[in-house]
Amino acid sequence: MRDEEKDQRVRPGWPRLALGALSGVLAGFAALAVAELVAAAVRPQSSPVIAVGGASIDATPAAVKDWAIRHFGTNDKLVLQLGILVGLAVLALVLGALAVRYRRVGAAGVPLFGVVGAAAAVSRPDSSSLTDALPSVVGAVAGALLLYVLVGRLTAVRRPAESTSESATEEAGDAPPPSPGWDRRGFVLAAASAAAASAAVGAVGRSLNASRGQDAIASREKLVLPSPGSPAQPVPKRAGIRVPGISSFVTPNPDFYRVDTALVVPKVDANAWRLRIHGRGVQRPRTYTFDDLLRRELIERDITLTCVSNEVGGSCVGNARWIGVRLADLLAECGIKPPSGGGPADQLVSRSVDGMTIGSPVEDVMDGRDAMLALGMNGEPLPFDHGFPVRMIVPGLYGFVSACKWIKDIELTTFDSYDPYWVKRGWARKAPIKTASRIDTPKPFARPKAGTVMIAGVAWAQHRGIDKVEVRIDDGPWQETDLAAEDTRDTWRQWSLPWQATKGGHTLSVRATDRTGTVQTDKRTRTIPDGAGGWHSVVVTVE
Does the predicted model carry a pTM greater than 0.85? Predict the structure, then answer.
């Protein structure tokens, strides 16, 4: 190699390093696009971003998860995926720049990410085949080859054009030296072609992945829920207070909170859905179809759900009208008895199609409360986000020990012999919902006018009921509020208090008392291990 050529290869300038970094990004884009296409043939959950994202969620400490939910709400998964993509982009930039000087080393770095994605995919709890590794592997190979080709255009040495006569008369050793340039035209064409092809491949992959759920979508659209054999009682007229800013008594489906670990919402065809009940103390194991459930007597109930990650004053709580099948009846058909009746199993482990495991106390499920396998929500089939075709609901228990969405399996076992997903991560085995209350209006840092200001909000103590709600202004005495009519003890209650507001800054606090006489504690506690505690307070400035 001539000295000039060697110098160009070893010490590329900043323009070529920048283009090398761009090559890395293009290679990363191509890798993800190809992986998306291959995932369409395997299953959407095997996509490397989804697989790595799921593994990241599993490995994230509980405190970090709470922080994400508190700051991003239901957008936490989108933020996670964007974070993964940004991280991949940064690493792709580094590999691309490295490849300008060390072409093979830089290109060889890309498959390492494929290994990470493949390992994450096959280790997911819902993975049942090594084929889940294919999207990451094939995508990484495609990305590595593209980076190698693109960087080749940056390191190729251009030779000047030579005439035929000159070529015929010059000896091989007398050829003119290479000019200090690189294949600009070849790089631009290759980069543009790669970007266009990757975009097309990615679009096809996304389209195919979306089409995989068409059977599930069709099954939901065709579903007409039968009239419940045990309908819910009409909601009392005074259950809803007409105060601007207060939460509606019934939470509309689009506004209902969603907290789960699924980066891709499962779309399950109701016609293909099956539920298996088996395990310890199950005398007659059964497998139910969706039609089996539809043929049974359905119950309709108003039930408020609460997530254990709900901070004091948080929004991860909602009230809806659910329709479904009594879970206790299904368990009894299988010969299952609660521990109080001599049954050997004290834990019911429900499994979702995405691999989530949730453990519930058998005694609570079978003690007469309206625990159900829900099929509908607020007058329509369950939305996919909320568990279509079937989810579990147990009034009075936080969702992480009761509300399995996209359920497919119920196993009877004991708390001593098995720890489900959240228990392994430091959460409690049993978690009854704590008595809580929230100020909806005025909002924190509001600036209302002096005079009559309505303070209003909601309080809940599912399966016990709310007996009293009190508000305190600054350090003054507790004042009992006007309670709205109670629907059931499993739903929240609205409350209000007219306040003669005086100018200046004020702190408003609220506490509730449930029907057992338990007063909401003022002690602030974290959400982990069994739910947050403390009074909700807001600071306002009256003008």
Answer: no
